[in-house]
Amino acid sequence: MENAFLFLNFLGTGEFVLIAFVFLLLFGPDKIPGVARTVGKGIRKIKDAGDNLKKEIHASSQDVDSMASDMKKDIQEIENLTQSVKRGVKKTLDK
Fold first, then answer.
1. CA distance between the termini of the chain
2. 32: Cβ contacts below 8 Å, ≥ 6 apart
3. At 95, is the secondary structure helix, strand, or coil?
4. Residue 4: what pLDDT?
5. How many beta carbons lie within 10 A of that of residue 32, not counting itself?
């Protein structure tokens, strides 16, 4: 949560008072709770979307890792089979 307010470090008390006053003039005292609630919900949706995206990327990377592992096993089996065939051909040619 600390990272969310890092941009506020350069604002002084006077700037905060001015921003609050302008906010009050624009929306009025009756609408400020509703606006704050709407902004909070919007931020929550954005965070949730980011979390879902991270989860999907993580799941996809695990799938890719699994596929790479399977491919390595298949390549090793093919190499073993190739070596076996080479030995068989060599034995046949040596006779």
1. 78
2. 23, 24
3. coil
4. 56
5. 14
Measure the CA–CA gap between 93 and 86, rounded to whole angstroms: 10
| Cα–Cα distance list, 38 to 30, 35, 42, 68 (Å) | 14, 5, 6, 45
| Pair of tokens at residue 58 | 């993580």
Radius of gyration of the chain (CA): 32
Residue with tokens 């919007």: 42
Residue spans of the chain under pLDDT 70? 1-9
- Residue 35 and residue 27 in contact, taking contact as beta carbons nearer than 8 Å: yes
Look at residues 47, 22, 50 and name the one whose alpha carbon lies nearest to residue 35.
Answer: 22
pLDDT at residue 83, rounded to an integer: 93
Residues 42-69 have pLDDT tens digits of: 999 999 999 999 999 999 999 888 999 9
